[in-house]
Amino acid sequence: MKWKGRRQSDNVEDRRGMSGGGKVIAGGGAIAIVFFLVKMFFPEAAPFVDTIQQSQGAQQTEQVEPRELTPEEKEMGEFVSTVFADTEDIWTKIFEENNLGTYEQPKMVLFTGSVETACGGASSASGPFYCPGDKKVYMDLAFFEELRTRFGAKGGDFAIAYVVAHEVGHHVQTILGTSGKVRQLQQSKSEAEANKLSVCLELQADFYGGLWAHYNQKYLEEGDIEEALSAAHAVGDDAIQSKMQGHVVPDSFTHGSSEQRMKWFMKGFKSGDIRLGDTFAEEL
């Protein structure tokens, strides 16, 4: 992606390298990603996993001293800030073109290890996520190395851009009221039915990521879309379940299969039409 020398967002707060005095989980990113995936695909185990993390945190707590970010870390921060700026410009345009009102820009927090949010405390184990309580995207950028080395994504800068755009897609769902309607509807559904609604919500965020890429084509380079598709494939429920447990349980899907995630990203990218992103009508 062509990004150097371009505008960076004023809505990014970089907390990496700051003194957190926080909890450091034994095993670092490898165990963190396992915790994240267990909670994603086995939500009933989340309280148990949280207890383990809290226990480890209590045993492994140490004071983290402020440190200077490496040149590579600084460049990564500049890149995601540029991508975030692109989402601001493009979603403002999409809202104007479709008479959706004024686009309310979210914020992004870059952190290392752990972070406090309006949705509660979180660690790297949470993976990149959006908190509707404070309308912020939270990212520990170490996640992407784990995604590449452990789960087979190609890597590359546009794999990161895809995830940023996906999380911003959840912000769009929040301000349009989609997320609130889905959460309310899930309360009256069985677990399997609620999971299907979660899948549709995630696939729509993938569609929105593809829609952003459609509007951002002048900055794309050869191979960028392939990098995004590789990341979408790697985070498909079936791909991760196969790696984690050796078999696939479709009723437990909460984010969609690899095929679905790639399909909806590409639909957004090829169509450029927000009106075609009704995943609920097509997937339920």
UniProtKB/TrEMBL annotation:
Coiled coil: none annotated. Residues 7-17 have a biased composition (Basic and acidic residues). Residues 53-63 have a biased composition (Polar residues). It holds the Pfam family Zn_peptidase. InterPro entries: Uncharacterised_pept_Zn_put. Keywords: Membrane, Transmembrane, Transmembrane helix. Its main location: membrane. The chain crosses the membrane at residues 21-42. Residues 1-20, 53-72 are annotated as: Disordered. It is found in: Membrane. It is a single-pass membrane protein. One of its GO terms (cellular component) is membrane. This is Metalloprotease. It comes from Flavobacterium cheniae.
